[in-house]
Amino acid sequence: MAESSRPAIDAEVHVLIIEDNEEHAQLLEKLLASSEYPRFRVSIVHTLAAGLESLQSGSIEMVLLDLTLPDSQGTPTFCTVSEVAPKLPIVILSGISDVTVAIEVVQLGAQDYLVKGHVDNHLLLRSIQYSIERKRAEIALREAHDELEARVQERTAELLEANNRLHAEIAERKRAEEQSLESNRQLMDALAELRAMQQDLVRRERFQALGHMAGGIAHEFNNVLTPIVGFAGQLLQHDDMLANPEIVRGYIQKIHTAAQSGARAVARVRGFVRAEAGVFGAMNVPEVIESVVTFTEPKWKDEALAAGVSIGIATQVDEVPEVHGDAAQIGDLLAQLIFNSIRSVSRRGMVTIAAENRGSEIAIIIQDDGCGMSEGVRLRCLDAKSCLAPQNGRLTGYGIVHGILAQHSGLLEIESQEGKGTRVVIILPTVIKEAPPVVIPKQAAAPAKSLRILVADDEPMVREVIQMYLAEDNHIVEVAVNGREALEKFKAADYDIVLTDRSMPELSGDELALAVKQLKPGIPVVLLTGFGELMNAEGERPEGVDIIVSKPFNLDTLRSALAIA
After folding, report:
1. How many Cα atoms are found within 13 Å in the side-chain-facing hemisphere of 203?
2. Architecture field, domain 281-429
């Protein structure tokens, strides 16, 4: 989906700030007042009760909410506001820097979770804009789903009515009994086919819409990966750098900073179904289980002990055949189920992970002796539709589980009783599909000549990585922090090629590319974007763009793109 087709935000947005700290509320009001578009009309209240009263007016268009208020604390604060205003985007502004709380409220329906003291004007405005767009997409999806369900019911009623008429004709015209029975059978088959087609359409539209809602955060994460890949690649390729502690420490610090940003992006995006399938191949299930247990150890061991909880994890893995799947996604699925089990243990508990060979299937079993589930919660966790459409209450991440299993043709079984623990069984087919041959790309050669290159990107570390790469080949580089600055520099000097990010303030990459071509049609333009793979797969290329390069990229990728100059 092209960015130009996103719903426009209103010229003026009425924001309700529910914050008991007067100083922080005034700071937020000042930050919002600095926005030229959209403009914000701000109302401030200091208690949950006052906030609920303000919401009754019907004029509020979004909410900035503190979880810690004089008359309400923690997650229930969000749940109360969400119940009163289910159609409004809600962004959490909290002093609690807790990933678990952040994941929980996002799973419950919050559009974003920002930590006080770490919010600047750019981050706040971007979060509000993304939140409004995502909430509108979510409401549009729900309305489309309801409309589609109504159409299915209407068509079903018509078909059933026709079926009843056929039965009446059979009673009146017994001499045509065989023909009428055949017609009835065909009608029922058509009804079953219609239902299957409608269900498939609903499922695909829901997953597509959820992918678009997560697109903004996924783009942010691709920006984070670019400096990580770039700086790490430099250290691996240049042994002389490793002998310089100052360079090594500087690069590692940049990688660490980017990784922290990535962790925050992942925490926001994990509640959404992935927009596209991962890399499928022959997957060794015991290795995946061992890796997930090791990866989650800080959560079930160190953090748990710090909280006074003792949790043990044991594995009982038989010899099982390989499974065709995405090891990363199955790892995420198992990690989510392990975290669910951890949350169910109050003081001391045990989690057992087993794998069994069942002929044409394998079963992965996660069992705990925690608090268990009620029958209503168990049935809701088995319902993919309920898990992907959060209501009040805790989802425990089963929306993620259903999304991954849908891509792997897998099944989910849950056995649980309150006070007696939970047993979750994941069933995967063992059919191994022939993997496509691995193509090892040739290393791109360094260019024969030095180019004068204009680079536009609003991410400082991405600009630094690009400059580092281009310096390898002795190119002359001029950088701009947004599209508007890049256009002014392009008008003032001669360049051989333009490299531009797509999502930038002042002037987008699409607009910059078009302006460059209008001024000098012969100058190549390369678009660098986190949406690159999706755009190339769909054949989407904005006017004025010659090549699309997906973030993160490496030196060889950049060299190949520069070959058009």
Report:
1. 13
2. 2-Layer Sandwich (3.30)
- The pLDDT, as a whole number, for residue 162 is 79
DSSP state of 304: H
For β-strands 497-501 and 452-456, DSSP reports them as: parallel
Domain residue limits, the chain: 1-204, 215-269, 281-429
pLDDT at 250 (0 to 100): 82
Q: Do domains 1-204 and 281-429 have the same CATH topology?
A: no
Distance CA 418, CA 470 (A): 61
Distance between CA 526 and CA 542 in Å, rounded? Answer: 11
Dmax of the chain from CA atoms?
Answer: 97
User: At 213, is the secondary structure helix, strand, or coil?
Assistant: helix
> In the prediction, which pLDDT does 7 show?
44
Is the domain defined by 1-204 classed in CATH 3.40.50.2300?
A: yes
Distance CA 510, CA 138 (A): 26
| Burial class of residue 260 in the structure, from the number of CB atoms within 10 Å of its CB (0-12 exposed, 13-18 middle, 19+ buried) | exposed
Higher pLDDT, 234 or 479: 479
Model confidence pLDDT, tens digit, residues 371-384: 888 888 888 888 77
pLDDT tens across 66-90, in order?
A: 888 999 888 899 899 999 988 899 9
Residue with tokens 């303000």: 54
- Rounded to 5°, the CA angle 56-19-85 comes to 30
What angle, rounded to 10 degrees, do the helices at 215-237 and 121-172 form? Answer: 120
Nearest to 267 by CA among 90, 461, 98: 98
Contact 502, 510 (CB under 8 A): yes
The DSSP line for 414-444 is EEE-TTS-EEEEEEEE-PPPPPPPPP-PPPP
Question: Where residue 262 falls among pLDDT bands split at 50, 70, 90?
Answer: low
DSSP state of 125: H
Q: In angstroms, rounded to a whole number, what is the distance separating the alpha carbons of residues 362 and 288?
A: 14
Q: Before 38, cis peptide (omega within 30)?
A: yes
Q: Is the pTM of this model over 0.85?
A: no
